[in-house]
Amino acid sequence: MQASVSPRYSRSASCKGIALTLRNTLTPWDLIVPVPPHGNRACVLGACAPPTRASSGRPPAPTPAAREAPVARLQSSPVPAADGVFSRPRGLPVTGMGWEVQPEGLTRVLVRLHEEYSGPAGVTLYVTENGAAYEDTPDGSGFVADDERRDFFDLHLRAVHAAIARGADVRGYFAWSLLDNFEWAWGYNQRFGIVRVDYDTQVRKPKASALWYAKVAENNTLPARD
Fold first, then answer.
1. At the N or C end, where does the chain have fewer CB atoms within 10 A?
2. pTM
3. Reduced to 3 states, what is the DSSP secondary structure of residue 121?
4. Is 106 exposed, middle or buried (0-12, 13-18, 19+ CB in 10 A)?
5. Quick check: 15 and 224 in contact, CB under 8 A?
6. Cα–Cα distance measured from residue 15 to residue 209, given in angstroms and rounded to the nearest whole number
7. Which residues pair with 13 in a beta bridge?
8. How far, CA to CA in Å, does 8 sit from each of 30, 127, 205, 209?
9. CB of 155 within 8 A of CB of 223?
C-alpha cells in the first residue's frame, strides 16, 4: 500500500522551504493503493530498481545477521540475475536494512529518464514507490518518532524537486508504504510504513513521518531544514 500526495512541484524555492503545487491534497491515510511491495526502491513508470549501490563480483566481509532475511535456509539474491554480484559499502548513510541512502541518485535517474526516454516520448514521470525501513521503537502509547524515515522522505522529495528544476516532467510521488506490512523476503521483521501496525492487535497509529507527510501535502510546501 502506498500514500501519495500527487505533487506538481514548483521550480523555485523560497527561504521558508520548497513550494509544492499539489493537484490533489491527500493526507497519508486518504489513499490506499494495493501494489506488490518492492521495499526501499525508486520505481518510475512502474519499473522498480534496487537502491543505488556499488557492486563487484567479490564477496564483502560478513554483514550483521540482523540485516539478513530471518530464515534458516539457503537463499539466492531476490534481484534477477544478481547471483555472484555483491554490494560494496561506500560510507553513505544506510537504512535499517543496510541499504545506502543517496537522494541525489534519484535526481540523476529522473533527469536521465526524462532526457533519454520519457521527454522525447511525451510521457510524464511518477515516482510510484520510494521509502525505507528503520528500527521503529514505539513509546508507551504506541507512537513512533521515526525521524530517520521523515528525513528520508524530506531528502527524496527535495531530490525530485531538483530533477524538476533541471527539466524533468515529474507529476507525482508515492511514499512506500502507508502501513507496516509483510515484506516478501523479510516477513514482519522490517517496517516501511508511515503508520505503525501492532501485529498482535492490528491497531494502527500514525508515526511522526505520517504527521509530517500530511503537513507537506496540506501546505504544499517542504519545510526548511534546520
1. C
2. 0.71
3. helix
4. buried
5. yes
6. 23
7. 18
8. 18, 12, 28, 21
9. no
Identify residue 198 by its one-letter amino acid code: D
- What pLDDT, in 10s, does the model give residues 113-147? 999 999 999 999 999 999 999 999 999 999 999 99
Give the closest residue to 222 by CA, choosing from 79, 1, 22, 54.
22
Contact (CB, 8 A) for 205 and 61: no
Pair type for strands 2-4 and 170-176? antiparallel
Distance of CA 213 to the CA centre of its chain: 12
3-state secondary structure of 127: strand
Please, what is the end-to-end C-alpha distance for the chain in angstroms? 31
Q: Per CATH, the architecture of 2-53+84-223 is what? A: Alpha-Beta Barrel (3.20)
Q: Which three cell numbers stand for residue 152?
A: 528520508
64-106: pLDDT as tens digits: 544 555 556 666 666 666 777 777 888 999 999 889 999 999 9
Residue 148: its H or E element:
helix 147-165
